Amino acid sequence: MNPSIQQFFVERPRIDLLLQEAIKRPVVTVTAAAGYGKTHAVYSFIHRHPFALVWIAFTPRDNAEDQFWEDFTAAMRELSEETAGALAEIGFPSTDRKFDRYMRIPLKDVEPGTKYIIVFDDFHLIHNKDVLRFIERSITSVFPNITSILINRTAIPLNLISLEAKGLLAQITQEDLKFSRDEMRDYFTLRNIDPPEQKAEAVYNTTEGWAFAIKLAGEILVREQALDWELGEYGPNAFKSNIFSLIEKEIISIVSPELKKFLVKLSLIDIHQADLLREIGSPELLGELGSIGAFINLDTYTHIYRIHPLLLEYLSGLSDELEKKEKEEVYLKAAKWSFDKGQKLNAIGYYDKAGDYAELFKVMYTMPFIMDERTATTLLAIMLRVPPFLYDENPIAWTIRIRLYNNLGRLEETETELPDIIKKLEARDDAITNPVVARALTGLYNLWGFKGNMVSHSTGDYGFSACFEKACAYFKTSGHVVGPPVSVYGIGSYLCRVGLQHPNMESYFNAMELCAASLAYTMGGCASGLDDLTRAEFAFFEGDLFRAEELSYRVIKKARDTAQYEIENRAYFFLLRIGLHTGDAVLIKNILKEMEKQLSEPYYSNRYIYHDIVTGWFYVQIGQQGKIAPWLKNNFEKNDLNSVVLGQERLVKAKYHFVSREYPLALACLQDNGGQFALKTFLLGQIETGALEAVCRYKSGDKETSFEILKETCEAASGDGLYMPFTELGRDMRTLTAAALEETKVPFNRVILERIHLSASAYAKRLALVEKEFQSETEQQKTPYEPLSPRERKTLWGLYH
Fold first, then answer.
1. Residue 789 has pLDDT above 70, yes or no
2. Cβ count within 10 A of residue 750
3. What pLDDT was estimated at residue 477?
4. 521 pLDDT more than 80
5. N or C terminus: fewer CB in 10 A for the chain?
6. Is residue 391 within a helix (H) or strand (E), and if so which, with residue range?
């Protein structure tokens, strides 16, 4: 601790005993009005014990989920860089999927012998329902050695009734925090103040034990050793304006002009880390902070200056005294510091306030290519208010804007704006000679190609490959050299993005071949193996397993060499399904091991999502749905997955509900709301969802609809012989096709139906071998029923026929 900064913490054994008892429970609430010493009481208690501490002081900006998560992660970094990195990867846990992943992190990282304290200070500033819901779920998921302390001015807006009923909630109130006469005397003694008994009694009677007023009285008495002001108007019910008058009179008026300006600068930012403050002010100014008394404290554990909220609020009202240039300087230093610490959203926010859009664009350019909807919406709002002339000065900004449109599925804006942007840039005299313009055109043509690929299933237009060729041409003139892959290519529900009305597969394959080659060239290996993966998917759905397997292994080699983890993962998915089809348990086990290795790749941002989806599909297929990730079992959660690149999770959810005999839920999942990227808008998706819907409706007793859907889906699949989705339904499809073959009202193509019936029957037999291989020894030894007698078997066969 800086020795020039004096800390005045009076020891309060009574409060310490309350807190000592309280932290035996998982949740503690400390509730009192402003100025009752809530923060100081908790702070002074904790710092006298060897706890592992995380202190989160909320600000109004934390009502934005992503901003809250960035600050939450930064606070956790004080405990563990590894934990903070894992938290940053999953993003704000707005869904069961993310919350389940979040809960796995402390399970791994919390050390049993250590007591952890997580403090949520200034809780009254949070009103965002999603943030409150996360905190509620987090603190009520009890860990034996973690205690959460919630400091608030009013009642905590969380549902803690269940904890209270179980005796797991401790509550410290305003009455508990009031200073007693003896504690007030102890505080004055600590400050070397010895007022006469009559004056001390007058202070106490007027303040009613209100810590804030006692501190202010101490600030006066320490200089004057006399009580020369009327305390009556500054009791607990005083107006804020009167409190601000006291701050002005007794604190601000006595500090140097330089320190006052420094304090006002600090009110502009929400981050008060010691190393950042040293960049904003001189060491001498930091040393002078001691003259503020107990209203500014240096947390020696986290190296954060904790400034009393009322003082900060007062100082923010003086911000007009700063010149524009002085404010910009503070914002720029805070932005650079945030970016260096990996807090990109903070950096973007401060660069935006400073008006330094050139640096803001640089930070945005480093953001992931595919982001969740909330973050992309926030960034797009900033880009839309950027002055037009800045786009001319920084052409790379256009690529950021269009990328955000594509990311959010707002393709109408892309279609409207992109041609004019490209035309404007290409009309410049330096379009080819200026490396910055050429690089921007490279990115814009790639984005135009992405957009064309994204909608090709509905347009049937595969000419998007020409955009990628143009991108290559501009990349050559830019002189830009890329090192590692610029991005991991995000793949959607299906690689073959063709619709039922436009199944020209060979044209699509050729376009994807040009796409993969162009992106690999202009983006440092991005999309390597994508063309082979597209062909592997189609070969698998055709039932050409040898070809699909050969291509999948080729994809894995290319993708692994260029860090294209999502492409590699999808190749594993096909190999896993091939293993189920052939009954090759050894292959399956090897693939599962390789997928597990991917979880250690720090730059594979979506690894847990994809791993959960693929393994979830596998476990449902072999009848071990209890092993799938909890978020895939919940059909009611708000889905935050990016619909542009995902959707396969809906099929896994539907399969889970189907095998769990929850047929209405399964059918609800199949009626997905993916809009223009819904599974049924793709040829392969329509076949896969149609086959599952047919068996689902048959199981639920709606045979007439089941037969109609089966007929329509078979007709859609017959053109290219895409029968694998039927085969993979095994026993259930065998039962449905057997019934359909007996049906006379619906004119089925009996040849196709018999083919599906035989392949589903064979698949079911091989699947049974894999199921047995993956059963635990206990499950294998357990006999669920007594063996049937010959008479019982004969009777059951008779009923069957």
1. yes
2. 11
3. 87
4. yes
5. C
6. helix 388-393
Cα 153 to the center of its chain, rounded Å:
29
Other Cβ atoms less than 10 A from the Cβ of 432: the count is 16
**Measured between alpha carbons, how far is 519 from 157 in angstroms, rounded to an integer?**
50
Residue 82 CB neighbours (<10 A): 13
The pair of three-digit structure tokens given for residue 595, joined into one six-digit string: 């997928």
For residues 458 and 681, is the Cβ–Cβ distance under 8 A?
yes
As given in the structure block, the two tokens for residue 32 are: 């009192």
Residue 444 in tokens: 């814009």
Q: Environment class of residue 790 by beta-carbon count within 10 Å: exposed (0-12), middle (13-18) or buried (19+)?
A: exposed
**How much is the pLDDT for 643?**
56
134 CB neighbour count, 10 Å cutoff: 21
Per-residue exposure over 145-172, b if at least 16 CB sit within 10 Å of its own CB, e if not: ebbbbbbbbeebebebeebeeeeebbbb
Grouping H, G, I as helix, E, B as strand and the rest as coil, residue 304 is: strand
Range from 183-192, 381-390, 475-484, 789-798 that averages highest in pLDDT: 381-390
Amino acid identity at 320: D
Burial class (CB in 10 A: 0-12, 13-18, 19+), 762: middle
What are φ and ψ of residue 608, in 5° steps?
A: -70, -35
Instruction: From residue 475, give the alpha-carbon distance in Å to each of 317, 437, 486.
Output: 51, 10, 14
Helix (H, G, I), strand (E, B) or coil at 600: coil
Q: Which two tokens stand for residue 303?
A: 């190296």
The number of angstroms, rounded, from the C-alpha of 246 to the middle of its chain's C-alpha atoms is 44
Q: How do 296-299 and 116-121 pair as beta strands?
A: unpaired
What average pLDDT does range 641-648 have in this prediction?
A: 63
Q: Which of 89-98, 168-177, 551-560 has the lowest mean pLDDT?
A: 89-98
The 10 Å Cβ neighbour count of residue 766 is: 16
CB count, 10 Å around CB of 324?
Answer: 8
What is the three-class DSSP state of 228?
coil
Tokens standing for 225? 């050793």
pLDDT of amino acid 484: 62
Question: Beta-carbon neighbour count of residue 431 at 10 Å?
Answer: 18
Q: Which of 19, 3, 160, 148 is nearest to 75 (CA)?
A: 148
* Structure-model confidence comparison of residues 523 and 590, the more confident one: 590
What is the C-alpha to C-alpha distance for residues 683 and 677, in angstroms, rounded to an integer?
12
Distance CA 266, CA 262 (A): 6
In one-letter notation, the amino acid at residue 781 is: Q
